[in-house]
Design goal:
Elements lengths: L1 H20 L7 E5 L2 E6 L8 H16 L9 E5 L3 E6 L2 E7 H4 L6 H22 L2 H49 L5 H36 L4 H54 L13 H20 L9 H17 L1 H16 L7 E4 L2 E8 L3 E5 L5 E5 H6 L2 E3 L9 E10 L4 H13 L11 E7 L3 E10 L5 H18 L35 E3 L5 E3 L1
Antiparallel strand pairs: 1-2, 3-4, 4-5, 6-7, 6-10, 7-8, 8-9, 11-13, 12-13, 14-15
Helix pairs in contact: 5-6, 6-7, 7-8, 12-13
């Protein structure tokens, strides 16, 4: 006891000397045992600064851990006027001075008592966790966890096998029904391996998840491996926690986006309602055609949604990050470089919409292509020819060339069909005019209320060119009407015994049969003979 008394006096003298030289150390120095911080020192003790003091105390406590017969009740606390000393079987573990109490809300005796309680609790738990009984219990708990994991994996495999069999059975029944109805089943057979493969991948993912969740439980059973368990749990809990916090923090922005979307949606509905009314003729606007209504609505809708996206963009998660901005710029450059022709066609489509050169159902001619308009959008126009060929023409091509519309005034003024025949000079032009006009009036599809007319377009070397012009309202049946018109022209001219010299026809008139079908040859007609005239002035006829 006297030895301990002298030691306490020496520590007291050293503490006063150290305090006079270095009163306060502002950096706390922790005492860490088995990755667990017991307490911190802010002031030095005797010749030791706070850092050295913490190292010495840590070394003494670790020495206690190596005692096989450690008993926490052997830790004692003694207080005098200047120091509080914690000892273990007469061995000084640490001392608490008045300067330590200045960094807490209690006095020196209370602070020392709390340190003693911490030492008893921590060291007692350490020896309790490392006892033979506790180690045995931990091993049994770990074995139970492993057995439970094996049972769960076995149950999961059984469920996966059952689900696969049910799927195969249902699939075979479905395929048999399709085959009975005559539907092709080859695609279904090719799709089945993909579905079973997805089931197999899902089973593997669930097994890996079970194993990963079991590992933290195993590590948490043993005190020495509990930090690893916390680390593994952190890999799962931390991302979910971050996601939940991000969702909660994002709720105000989400509400803002929802309000902007709802307002834009109702504005689009209002514009659509007005467009439908204009298209149906319920609302009329001077200078604005009804056929412009829906294309204008589509343009306004695109602009409104584009404006909505611009307004919503700052509220999107990650919109202020450099990665998001870089990807956005890259996509914008890629779109602008790769869609120059598409944008050109879109602009041309908008211009064509308001130019109104044609509409759906019109018979038009673009370059060398003629057909009915079956589709018209911002990018292309599709024509269907009389041979049922669908031809796609970019709008930029149509805008850069000329377009012929046969249907625009066909219903009102009539489309003029024209065809040219050449007749010899021996036939009076009045006769030709009458024959052509009568052929036109006899043609189905030619307008009867508009008189056909004939133009003499050329006086050729051997014949005269007559152009017949007839009106029709059937612009989509031009080929059929032309065919009927040509048939009637042949019939009328053959009935009148007039030869058609188209395109060009040459023959010796003497001794040759007239060039019309036999059914139209006049009764009693005989082929003329050859006439030969000589220089002697006599004529011989054979």
């Amino acid at each position: 006891m006297r030895k301990n008394y002298y030691l306490l006096i020496l520590l007291l003298i050293l503490s006063f000397t150290t305090y006079a030289q270095n009163p306060v150390s502002l950096q706390p120095q922790p005492v860490i045992i088995n990755s667990d911080t017991l307490f911190k020192f802010y002031a030095g003790q005797g010749l030791f600064e706070a850092k050295e003091r913490a190292a010495v105390v840590t070394q003494r406590i670790e020495g206690l851990i190596n005692h096989i017969d450690f008993n926490k009740d052997s830790l004692k606390l003694s207080n005098d006027s200047n120091l509080s000393v914690i000892t273990y079987k007469s061995q000084v573990i640490m001392a608490v001075n008045n300067q330590d109490a200045k960094f807490s809300e209690v006095n020196r005796q209370q602070l020392a008592a709390s340190y003693l309680n911490i030492l008893k609790t921590k060291l007692g738990n350490y020896f309790a966790n490392n006892s033979t009984q506790q180690v045995t219990i931990n091993i049994l708990e770990a074995a139970a966890v492993v057995i439970l994991l094996i049972i769960l994996i076995w149950a999961l495999n059984k469920m996966a096998r059952w689900a696969k069999l049910r799927l195969l059975k249902a699939w075979e029944i479905r395929v048999d029904k399709l085959a009975a109805k005559g539907a092709p089943v080859a695609y279904a057979h090719r799709l089945l391996p993909l579905i079973t493969g997805l089931l197999r991948i899902g089973r593997f993912v669930l097994i890996i998840l079970l194993v990963y969740l079991a590992l933290p439980v195993l590590f948490f059973i043993f005190p020495s491996s509990q930090p690893i368990a916390n680390l593994l749990l952190g890999y799962i809990v931390t991302p979910f926690k971050s996601i939940l916090l991000a969702i909660v923090n994002y709720i105000p922005n989400l509400l803002t986006i929802a309000v902007i979307y709802v307002v834009t949606r109702y504005i689009v509905k209002l514009v659509k309602f007005i467009a439908n009314e204009i298209a149906q003729g319920a609302i009329t606007i001077n200078g604005f055609y009804a056929e412009w209504a829906m294309p204008t609505y589509n343009i306004i809708r695109v602009l409104l949604f584009a404006f909505m996206f611009v307004v919503i963009f700052p509220y999107l998660p990650g919109s202020d990050s450099k990665v998001f901005q870089g990807v956005t710029v890259f996509l914008g450059v890629l779109f602008s470089l790769g869609s120059s022709s598409a944008i050109s066609n879109m602009v041309s489509g908008i211009v064509l919409t308001y130019m109104r050169p044609y509409k759906i159902g019109d018979r038009i001619k673009v370059g060398e292509v003629s057909g009915d308009v079956v589709e018209k959008n911002l990018l292309v126009t599709r024509l269907r020819t009389i041979k049922n060929e669908d031809i796609t023409i970019p709008n930029a091509t149509i805008l850069s060339g000329h377009t012929v519309n046969y249907t625009t005034v066909a219903k009102t003024m009539g489309l003029i069909l024209n065809t040219t025949v050449t007749i010899g000079y021996d036939v009076p032009w009045q006769t030709v005019h009458n024959l052509l006009t009568s052929a036109a009036l006899a043609t189905e599809g030619v307008m009867a209320d508009k008189q056909p007319f004939v133009l003499q377009t050329a006086l050729n070397d051997f014949n005269v060119s007559y152009q017949l012009n007839a009106y029709t309202a059937l612009s989509n049946q031009m080929a059929v009407v032309y065919s009927r018109l040509h048939q009637n022209i042949q019939d009328k001219f053959n009935e009148a015994g007039v030869e058609i010299m188209s395109p060009h026809y040459t023959s010796l008139r003497d001794g040759n049969h007239i060039q019309i079908p036999d059914g139209y040859v006049p009764e009693g007609y005989s082929k003329p003979g050859f006439k030969v005239e000589g220089d002697l002035g006599f004529k011989h006829e054979k």
